[in-house]
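Progress narrative, work stream C.
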Amino acid sequence: MKSESAFSFSSVPLYADKDEYVAKKLIFTINNIELQEKAGYEAADRWAATVSPKDGRPDEIITLQANEKRDQQLQAARAHLEANGPIYNVQLVKRGKSFYFNTITEAKSL
């Protein structure tokens, strides 16, 4: 006999709409960061961050293309996560066509 509750599409991770995060200036916590080799656009490496937005929505994944400067920054962030836990008060910003994480102060988040 087959189980009727073996799989649920609702358990599949949600990918964030990066433009929405920027437009709404959403504040979130980064819970995990991983490098995904050959998983990005045209099989390029990318970073995937699991985030918890403060607006109450479920955790989502923000992906960013890998590059030398970003790799250094996100490797350091991943090491911080492993040693200290989540990174709080982060916003996604956009400069030109590129997205970046920015840590904000409590005063800015009010």
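Work stream C, second folded protein:
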Amino acid sequence: MHRPEDVTMLVEEYRALLGDEESPSSEFLEGALARGGDWTPRAARHLRELVINYGSFMLRNALAISLALQTEDGELQF
């Protein structure tokens, strides 16, 4: 059963995709997301900016709120 609040498998997928990079360059991160993660270049850039600007504390809370409100796709329609 798929539980959207359980992101364990998703975290493991991104760890495998990004390898041992602790502080990947913008180009590396966006390229890996676009090639291996099937994101568009625009979405990959936006994801990188979210990670850099907000970090896991803020994004974890945003995830919890979006799940509570059952908001899967936001206004930007990624």
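The two ends are 24 Å apart (CA to CA). No further action is required on this item.
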